Amino acid sequence: MTIPTYKQTTIRSPKDAHHFLESVYKSATKKHFTCLFLTPKNSVIHKEIISIWSLNAAIVHPREVFRAAITRCSTSLICAYNHPSGDSTPWQLLFSLVT
């Protein structure tokens, strides 16, 4: 049995993941939390948007991420989210307040 891959794309670096997700995020007006599920050779099996941000919050529970990973029989995953405004300052500020 073979596992179908998503257009036979292989992720070898963060830049590869960025290029792969760029089409998803390019026209997005809201923040999306997306996961890429990979084979042992880092080929993309599936891409799934796990959560879409509301005005000021997002709920991303680990069970949703891992359920999707187990369902796809993936050996690894990449989680990513976008900043439609291009400004990541609020998150950096929040991180600095927490640490």
Brief summary:
The protein has 99 residues and is of the alpha+beta class. 33% of the residues lie in helices and 22% in strands. A three-stranded antiparallel sheet has the order 2-1-3, covered by helices on one side.
Radius of gyration: 15 Å
Query: End-to-end span in angstroms?
Result: 47 Å
Specify the biggest β-sheet: 3 strands, antiparallel
Strand order in the sheet with the most strands? 2-1-3
Strand content: 15-25%
Please identify the oligomeric state. Answer: single chain
Low-confidence stretches: 91-99
Level of helix content? 25-40%
The overall strand count is 3
Provide key terms for this protein:
three-stranded antiparallel beta sheet; globular; alpha+beta; 33% helix; disordered C terminus; 3 strands; 99 residues
Describe this structure in words.
- The protein is an alpha+beta fold and 99 residues long.
- The chain contains three helices and three strands; from the N terminus they run H-E-E-H-E-H.
- It has helices at 14-26, 62-71, 89-98; strands spanning 32-38, 44-52, 76-81.
- The protein has a three-stranded antiparallel beta sheet with strand order 2-1-3, with helices on one face.
- The chain is globular and about 35 Å long.
- The termini are far apart.
